[in-house]
Design goal:
By secondary structure, this protein is mainly alpha-helical. It has one domain: Orthogonal Bundle (Hypothetical protein af1432). Helix content is 68%, strand content 0%. InterPro entries: HDOD, RNase_Y/CdgJ. This is HDOD domain-containing protein. It comes from Sulfurimonas crateris.
Length: 271
């Protein structure tokens, strides 16, 4: 990994007091849904993002969600924490995704689609693991923000964009330009912010799950499959879906469950 990216990570601002409080509540087994709702009720940006997602067709709650307490009750503490952290972290970073040929809004949507696909798929595989993987799926592309910044600073946007646009292996392009994949950069970001080691490791190996330790190999593989199906350059394209389904089949998953999740999320994303 280039020293300039490492220096950029070391200089990242600290997490907000709201996120620190959310993490504290989440880690306390005696905390309740009311505690979580209270933690976010004074942060308008977090509330706006949670309500936006709660009322999105991707989750289909069937009625308008009007306040934080309703949203937290429906999502639960784990997913509420994930949404709050995910959106807050992206606000902390300067987002210019031009090297990846997408806008910051498109980047945010792709992150949300990856998270939604992961949850829709994995809740039928293992509900507990689905909740753990939701946050990782939502945040696993965070490193692209720093890689894009590095590419821009080195005046390599045109060549990088050209390679990304048609690539079926984005991680390989990232490695060539920054000496690291997005997963490796993202893992270092969350190590800097003090996230737990399993979360960091599953993202670190998300571009190369075969090399992951056995304890987190399944998690890294699931993340890799999701980012294969919803890559930043060809989300839900026929080619991306076929690649992802093949990876799932090779890994021993029930492919029908994944196909159902793809159909659900892809259809809802167009509403």
């Amino acid at each position: 990994m280039k020293s300039s990216i490492i220096d950029g990570i070391k200089s990242l601002p600290p997490l907000s007091t709201t996120i620190i409080e959310i993490n504290r509540i989440y880690a306390d087994e005696n905390s309740t849904i009311k505690d979580m709702a209270k933690a976010i009720e004074h942060d308008p940006m977090i509330i706006a993002n949670i309500l936006k997602i709660a009322n999105s067709p991707l989750y289909g709650f069937g009625r308008e969600i009007k306040n934080a307490a309703q949203a937290v009750s429906l999502f639960g503490m784990n997913m509420t924490r994930s949404i709050a952290i995910g959106n807050s972290i992206k606000k902390l970073l300067n987002v210019d995704m031009q090297p990846y040929c997408i806008t910051s809004e498109e980047f945010a949507k792709i992150s949300s689609l990856q998270a939604a696909l992961m949850f829709s798929w994995y809740k039928k595989v293992d509900r507990r693991k689905a909740e753990e993987l939701y946050l990782a799926a939502f945040l696993q592309e965070t490193g692209k923000i720093l890689i894009a910044s590095e590419v821009i600073q080195n005046d390599e946007t045109i060549s990088f964009s050209s390679e990304i646009e048609n690539s079926n292996n984005i991680a390989m392009v990232e490695k060539a330009y920054s000496n690291a994949t997005c997963g490796e950069v993202t893992a270092l970001v969350f190590k800097h912010w003090g996230f737990d080691s399993n979360f960091i490791e599953m993202i670190k190996y998300s571009d190369n799950p075969a090399a992951a330790p056995d304890s987190i190999k399944e998690y890294s593989m699931a993340l890799n499959i999701v980012k294969t199906i919803v890559p930043v350059n060809k989300p839900f394209s026929d080619m991306s879906i076929n690649f992802g389904l093949k990876k799932a089949a090779d890994a021993g998953y029930d492919v029908a469950l994944l196909e159902d999740a793809i159909s659900h999320v892809a259809d809802k994303s167009e509403e």
